[in-house]
Amino acid sequence: MRSVMGSSSAPVEIRVAESDADFEAWARVKRAVLPNERAWTPQEFRERSRPARLVLVAELDGEVVGAGLADLSDVAERAAVTPRVAPHARRRGIGTALLRELVSHGSGLDVELLSASVEDEGSRAFAERFGFSETDRQVEQVKVLGDEPEPPPLPEGVETVTIAERPELLREAHPLGVQGFADMALDGSATISLEDWLSDEATHPEGSFVALAGGEIVGYSGLCKLSEGVAEDGLTVVRRDWRRRGLATALKRRELAWAAANGIREIVTWTQTGNDGMRRANELLGFEYRSVSITMVAPLPVVVE
User: Fold this and answer.
1) Does the N-terminal or the C-terminal CB of the chain have fewer CB atoms within 10 Å?
2) Mean of the pLDDT values across residues 35-45?
3) pLDDT greater than 70 at residue 6
4) pLDDT value at position 166?
5) What distance in Å separates the CA atoms of residue 163 and residue 115, rounded to the nearest whole number?
């Protein structure tokens, strides 16, 4: 896209990621910054390509040291911008160069706000320089699996099946997933498209459970692949009229038991700081806190100089 001069006077090239090598380098930067998170494969980048999504890499002295992503957010009226720079290449203007291109793209997506997620004080200070301020926080909870207890009985009249047993239920559970996103403790209204739901949820279909009562879906808990031996409890949601009956815990217990029996040693989940009920349920299941992701938001226009 363009070349800019870093603070070391070496040219930094910002370009759209297009090749497998670019996507693999993008993933390496993400893992360097967020070692506990999964990055897409080149195939997944291609499968999930869409006009609103911009994927960038930043190259310095022949090495990709920056990764950028801009896309419509799950929260209404927002676009998300994510510039990341490998730790050894920071303070050379690379993050600013990436952010400039991402903001330019996000500003053209017919939104009112830009959002970004930061995980450390340095990144927070960087975002604040350009008018971003904190709106909410996500907390990461982690459980190391061992000999997991037998799952508790289900409420009367409820049965569970896995997505592997009935794959069509993932699509049918999407409206309940939308309800779960709407109930998240965020500062805006969140949702998830059917396309993203089908791509991101229940990537461990044998460990993803749907609760049925009278043939209707009343609960869902999806288990997702992260890395070798590590999985993520993606979304656990219970239909509003079925809450406070222990169904969420029963579904999570089934996930944990399946994971422990199938070579998974660690489960990760993310919960909003305002969702005290789910955080407490996770604590009772043995999850411990590990990290925090801070959501930063800025109204347009955002000027990056």
Assistant:
1) C
2) 93
3) no
4) 98
5) 33
Say how far apart CA 76 and CA 134 lie, in whole Å.
17
Q: Does residue 75 sit in helix, strand or coil?
A: strand
Confidence of residue 276 (pLDDT cuts 50, 70, 90): confident
Going by C-beta distance under 8 Å and a sequence separation of 6 or more, which residues neighbour residue 147?
260
pLDDT band of 277, cuts 50, 70, 90: confident
Please answer whether residues 205 and 228 qualify as being in contact, where contact means their C-beta atoms are separated by less than 8 angstroms: no
Under a CB-based contact definition with an 8 Å cutoff, are residues 64 and 28 in contact?
yes
The Cα-based distances of 42 to 73, 227, 239, 249 in angstroms read: 22, 16, 36, 36
Does residue 301 have a cis bond before it (omega within 30 degrees)? yes
Which residue shows structure tokens 């309940």?
Answer: 176
**What is the average pLDDT score of the chain?**
93
Q: How far apart are CA 95 and CA 278, in angstroms?
A: 35
Q: Percentage of residues in the chain with pLDDT exceeding 90?
A: 86
- The DSSP call for residue 305 is -
Q: Which residues have a Cβ under 8 Å from the Cβ of 250 and sit 6 or more positions away?
A: 151, 152, 153, 154, 155, 160, 211
Q: Give the alpha-carbon dihedral of 254, 220, 201, 85, to 10 degrees.
A: -80
Q: What dihedral do alpha carbons 39, 136, 173, 226 form, nearest 10°?
A: 20
Secondary-structure breakdown of the chain: helix, strand, coil percentages, each rounded to the nearest 5: 30, 35, 35
Count Cβ atoms below 10 Å from residue 195 Cβ, excluding itself. Answer: 10
Q: How far is CA 248 from the centre of its chain?
A: 20
